[in-house]
Design a protein that fits this description.
Elements (H helix, E strand, L loop, with lengths): L2 H11 L5 H4 L5 E6 L2 E7 L4 E2 L6 E2 L1 H15 L7 E2 L5 E2 L4 E4 L1 H13 L5 E3 L2 E4 L5 H7 L2 E9 L5 H14 L3 E2 L4 E3 H5 L10 E6 L2 E6 L4 H13 L3 E8 L22 E3 L6 E8 L2 E8 L27 E4 L3
Parallel strand pairs: 1-8
Antiparallel strand pairs: 1-2, 3-4, 5-6, 7-9, 10-18, 11-17, 12-16, 13-14, 15-16, 15-19, 17-18
Helix pairs in contact: 1-4
């Protein structure tokens, strides 16, 4: 329900108050969150000065709600597996119930209402719970390992961050996985560091260099599991950490790696990078019907530092 419609409904439901009664309405609405004070709404500051008619300043109220959401909204957290294979319980999230809070606000403005309210919340339930994780961790259907120079501190750091970003990702039947969407923008704020990266065929000191090794390792693990590849880009020349033609380059606002789970069960991605080794495995339940593929292994020889080559070309596979 829009703010204007809610105000109109309240105004029609109750006649305008005489000035002397309006002066008796509480001047302040105290808002609490889990019993703790979080905001005060001063009537005069949230009113448009129209004599005899209680009209709220909608823009100011919307700004207040946005600030309260920023301070109180808690995203749901999916269940997953820890480094030892144990199940990490899911966490229920919460968000501001805008409709209920808007009603409380306008009742305060129009009728006086309560002078203190608890910020109303909606529960947000995680998509992946512990029961599902217990089912889809049973059967490994694909895996792949690559190697990198751990002495390159910044590149190793970026590789570890990207591996962590895709770890415990679950892709349900009929869903697609986008590497860029899951990992997100590679920024300093997210902890990524400057390292040589491939950017439109030029050598550049960019943020997030090295994550192409994660996307390439993921591509080979997914391909070995027989999962349908929707979008893949490769460099015009070979990179040393995977066999020729087996890379999957990615960049923000550029190439992406996308696959589609055509199987009858959800799949779970397990990913880690440590001391020069990237390992990614794909799991599902014992009920999965899958068709694995033969995929060439990566060399265990540590590759030289990856430098940018010119151009990328697109591979789209069904």
């Amino acid at each position: 329900m829009g703010l204007k419609w809610m105000l109109a409904a309240l105004l029609f439901a109750q006649p305008a108050l005489p000035d002397q009664l309006a002066d008796q309405l509480p001047e302040r609405l105290t808002v609490t969150y889990h019993g703790q004070h979080i905001a005060d709404i001063n009537r005069a500051q949230y009113m448009v000065p129209i004599p005899g008619i209680p009209v709220a300043d909608e823009a100011r109220f919307r700004k207040l709600m946005a600030e309260l959401e920023r301070r109180t909204d808690r995203p749901a957290v999916n269940a997953g597996l820890n480094g030892y294979g144990g199940i990490v319980q899911e966490k229920i999230g919460s968000k501001l119930d805008r409709n209920r809070f808007t009603e409380q606000f306008y009742r305060f403005i129009v009728e006086g209402g309560e002078s203190k309210v608890e910020l109303p919340q909606k529960f947000i339930y995680p998509k992946v719970d512990s029961e599902l994780i217990a089912l889809i961790r049973e059967k490994q259907i694909g895996h792949y390992t690559t190697y990198y120079n751990s002495r390159n501190a910044n590149r190793s750091h970026n590789i570890a961050l990207a591996a962590k970003a895709i770890n415990n990702a679950v892709v349900f039947p009929g869903e697609s996985f986008s590497f860029n969407n899951v990992v997100g923008m590679r920024t300093v704020d997210k902890g990524y560091k400057s390292a040589p990266v491939i950017v439109r065929g030029e050598v550049s000191e960019g943020i997030g260099g090295g994550i192409c090794q994660i996307s390439s390792t993921l591509f080979n693990a997914v391909d070995r599991a027989g999962i349908r590849i929707i979008q893949r880009y490769s460099h015009s020349r070979d990179v040393p950490y995977v066999p020729p033609g087996r890379d999957a380059t990615v960049s923000w606002h550029g190439p992406d790696f996308v696959f589609h789970n055509q199987y009858n069960q959800p799949i779970l991605i397990r990913s880690y990078a440590h001391v020069g080794t990237v390992h990614i495995a794909i799991y599902s339940s014992e009920l999965v019907h899958y068709k694995p593929k033969e995929v060439p292994q990566a060399s265990e020889r540590l590759p030289d530092e990856v430098r940018a080559e010119r151009g990328v070309h697109r591979n789209t596979e069904d």
